[in-house]
Amino acid sequence: MTAIYKREMRSFFTTPIGYVFVAIYLAISGALFAATTLFSMSSSLTEYFSYMLFVYVILVPLLTMKSFSEERKTRTEQLLLTAPVTLPGMVAAKFLAALTLFASCQLVAALAFFILARYAQLKVAVIFGNLLALMLVGMAFIAVGLFVSALTENQLAAAVATVGILLLFLLIGYANQFINVYWIRFIFSCLSVWTRFQNFGQGVFDVAALFYYLSVTAVFLFLTVRIYDKRRYR
What we know:
With 234 residues, the protein is mainly α. It has one domain. The protein is built from twelve helices and no strands. It has helices spanning 2-14, 16-38, 46-64, 69-73, 77-81, 87-110, 112-117, 124-149, 155-171, 182-191, 193-201, 207-232. The model has no long low-confidence stretch (mean pLDDT 83).
């Protein structure tokens, strides 16, 4: 597992993917932070964190699209399947590698809050809640991206499909305004990433939302393992 993790981390920076992801993440994050706080002379971070959710819909597929697709395209998939590591360990290694790069970028971007703290009184609980929520959303989105990447050898197809699924998870709650059936509205609210994000955004630790994000992550990682479990015996 450790070997695969190191291999994945190395691959991010032996190809343009890692550099492109880091550059785009920090550039967009910095631009949004400046536009929503510094230029508008506001200490409210609500807009920044809301916009970052939609940025993740584009950025996370860029990070995950090659994870398994490239293995199939270059025919190195069999090396993974015959490596002395369990399938859950293999999937976990790729997940942790993507999460490490993602979390590192988020940590660097969070340094901007220290700049703002010199000029405004910030609510630490709200900032921490939003950062935690963004991390949980990132975890869930990465798991979805890995699952989609395991389905195809075409990286572009993996990226586009992942964007579609992530948008569905993010925007499904908005469909409630057009639906009058309570149980459908309830299901859509439960599945909506945006709805679950709101409590964290207000600085409230939402245990149900925490369980939701962890469950989505676990389910899609499990499905990825199942894909390779079936493929191993073909």
